[in-house]
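U., I forgot to send this yesterday:
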Amino acid sequence: MKINISYKGMLGVLAGVCMMASCSTPKNVAYFQGAENAEIIEIASAQNRIFKIQPFDKLSIVVSCQDPTLAQMFNLNVFTNSQAQRSPLNGTGSSLRDYYTAYSEGINGFTVSSQGTIDYPVLGNIKVEGMTRNELAAFIKGEIVGRGLIKDPVVTVEFLNTGVSMLGEVMHPGRYDLNADNLTLVEAIALAGDLTINGQRENIKVMRKDGDKMQTFVVDMTDAKGLMASPVYYLRPGDVVYVEPNNIRKRQTVANANSVTNISFWISVASLLTSAAILFRK
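Result:
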């Protein structure tokens, strides 16, 4: 049986196949789908949003006043940034600060002991476990003023080694120092440079340690209501955020991957059909 296929027919078939491949509109790219204009969406509970000091946390405690020489007795030595080992990728903005493997902002930190205490200059041993940053700052200020050491101290307490890890298909994966009591998953992703186009927005995993166990939550960034109701909408220190690559990205890791979504595949198909059309025309 002889089949007659014209040159124009072959081109028409090729054009049709290409149109079918390019006309589909992805549904899993846009964030916050389902949110209507002026609609009120309930956000996850604010419970446990304020971080409390735990054993082995590293704290920056800085005392300042009008007379720097008086404040100096309460502060650890300051070193230059060149003495700190800095990670290659850093967060930006007020919520995610530059992360150093040991210290941050050039200040040596106080490490909380396994008993939940720190050995603070002049004041001695202080039980800090279970306090918030503001509570510890108020306590130290009260002790300094109460003992008549400084009349007008300003005490600032920050965490140095509590952070979140951003992994997978984000623009700037890495470890980020966390110093906000209400940092959301959306803010963390934004400060890490957003997801790449190859990231699965509907399958973001947040791994959270709870005692000696690790719990995994799956978040869909395309579902506005589900995202804001998620227990991991607000991140905690130690959370690991992993953005899984989509199928296109996964195939790119396989040598000589053949797929209908692979550009080289379509080039091969076009070349084959063009060659076949020329042969039939002859």
